[in-house]
Amino acid sequence: MDISIKDGTIVTANDMFRADIGIRNGKIASIGHDITGMENIDASGKYILPGVIEIQSHFEAAFGNTRSIDNFFKGTQTAACGGVTTIFDTVIPKSDESLLEAIKNRRQLLDAQAAIDYSLHLCLPEAQENFLSEIPQVLNEGLPSFEAFLCSHAAELVHQDSSLLELMETISKAGGLLMVHCGNQALLQQASQRYPLEDPLAMTHYPQLCTPQSEAEAVYRLMMLAHSTPCTLHLNHLSTRESLTQALQHHPLQSRIYTGTDLHYLTHNENVYKQPDARNYTVLPPLRSQADQTCLWKGIQAGTIQTLSSNHWPFTREQKKLGEDLASIPAGFANLELLLPMLYHQGVRSRHIDLMQLVAVLSTNPARIFGLSHKGSIAVGKDADLVIFNPLLKKTLSSSNLHSESDFCLYEGQELQGYPEMTLSRGRIVCDNGKFTGEQGAGQFIARSI
């Protein structure tokens, strides 16, 4: 064996057991006992987890007149140091690009910079005939997942029902999956005009950009369309009890409807918009109530929420001062490096979920839903994307000891117990005790089918 990881507790979505793992040529070659390799890593007292799959990250991503602060190399460094071994980026074609040209241009950036493996979602601004006709070719390129917005700071990305239905039908015929961002664009625009930033209390009204009712209404509308076309859907960033309830009420659709939420909806609530630094917490959908948090934790526990992402969209404090109205304040923050350790600390240690449920929402379910057949689990033949996780390791969080270029941290000063010690990407050690050890450009594009 090239590498042996010895005496750790292997955790999958269905089981936990002590064993060694043998790695050869970037793959898991054996699981058992008394396995030795050219390099032997002692994992006694630690968990061995599948590498995390981040389904929504935004590197070098435009927001209004600015861009997220992490480039692809820095972003994938950040990912690796948090136990993330595969990321998804989003391609939004420019007006003068075909879909295939947009994919090629984005891949050139990622191929040169990505330190871990990656794949892509394709966001279609509207159901233009030239875009629709290219969708089968996009699937042939190994990209079966698409994105659509019902509510966004960028109005040009928002679909009306007729456009959305046409897109769903085309993707369904091609055998793809559509990820949908739910909300109501008219209500977002109304709230943004109603509460001007000149008002000292404007930030307290930030949740009005996308209320729980408007998110739930969008889910209901989407479910009505889903009854008329057999498109597989993933509902992104669900944040409220009402929207999750709407999604679960349509039992005939459950075999092709997946739901996901984000880390920050489990850890923060809407009271932050009353704080002096409220702009640091802007995100769409906005942060919600404690009751919504409780419902989301129960959804992960019950398996009715299948995926969890960081929705990493990092900005600096100066960038957060931008924006002419509530909707144009850069929405998002650096969250990627803390996705795994924070879910362990707040979820597993607080007994909201168990370790196997953590593995399910961070690794196994994303791999299954999005067609990453060689990732997401610990089994012979899978890629050796692994995390050695120390449940006793403590870390006090600060933007200064994390790897993103963002200069603030949502969890500043908080002490975590449980943190990744080592991350392996296809058998290569890319992070060792908090130090990035990977290489720029070593990540590979992953073609998929679902």
From TrEMBL:
InterPro entries per the UniProt record, alphabetical: Amidohydro-rel (IPR006680), Metal-dep_hydrolase_composite (IPR011059), Metal_Hydrolase (IPR032466), Metallo-dep_Hydrolases_sf (IPR050378)
Amidohydrolase-related domain ranges (all copies): 47-394
Entry-linked Pfam families: Amidohydro_1
An example molecular function term from Gene Ontology annotations: hydrolase activity, acting on carbon-nitrogen (but not peptide) bonds, in cyclic amides
Cofactors, names only: Zn(2+)
GO cellular component, one term: cytosol
Family: Belongs to the metallo-dependent hydrolases superfamily. Hydantoinase/dihydropyrimidinase family.
Protein name (database record): Amidohydrolase-related domain-containing protein
Annotated source species: bacterium (Candidatus Blackallbacteria) CG17_big_fil_post_rev_8_21_14_2_50_48_46
